[in-house]
Amino acid sequence: MNTVKTIRELRAAVARARSDGKRIGLVPTMGNLHSGHAALVLKAAQRTDFVVATIFVNPLQFGPNEDLATYPRTLPADQEALLQAGCHLLFTPSVDEMYPHGMDHQTRVSVPHLSEGLCGGSRPGHFDGVATVVSKLFNMVQPDLAMFGQKDFQQLAVIRALVRDLNMPIQIIGEPTVRAADGLALSSRNIYLSQEQRAAAPALYRAIKLIADGIQRGEQDVQALRAEGLKLIEAAHFRLDYLEVRNATTLLPTTATDPDLVIMAAAYQGTTRLIDNLHLTKE
Ligand code: PAF
Question: What is the pTM of this model?
């Protein structure tokens, strides 16, 4: 696996692979990789011939009081994990390489509606930052397909919309969330949790599951189920951001009879913000 830092080297390596007739897969990340990321690379390697991963902690998607400065940077371990998972090329640009004219002068990509509310409500500008950097990476690599985790459900919806609206010929694949044995969704931010917070954290998924199980049993009163879920979250000393039942395509509020719904939650353990969701589809 080759690691390159410049767009020029990236484009040259991808052009060589393409001239050999290879299909290109892209796995954009911010590094500090865990088995969820490895699963994305493995799947990309099954579906394409040349897998490009990117590691870039994108300042454009962090708010002023967020963890940009402390976000874990673990390049040697990440390189090893990517190699093991079957990655062919790693792109690790600097901020100057990605935003040579400064972030204030950067053209932005903004996906209306889907970027608003939920994580977009508590992290203003976050999804514009994601949509912008992902669009740039798509233009640099021009992959046949790109893989993202379903844990970031709203992010995935935003990326699907930008590809559709900007007519990018890229297949977007969402992969199921990888969980620890106790149900906690794997996340690069889990390393911020103290031992006590880590022990409490699986309650977020338990609350989501409680609501999902109720809906699957045929219970119609989403608000009553939500109140039960909330009790679990509060008992685990989370500070709630949101706990919502939404339509999985529009991300708008919905009812228990919706055949395609998603239960989404975000909550803080101390200063660490965790998100999770469960997508329920009925035939
Ligand atoms: O999910 C992430 O790690 C990031 O939001 C992404 C998609 C790599 C864009 O910076």
Answer: 0.98
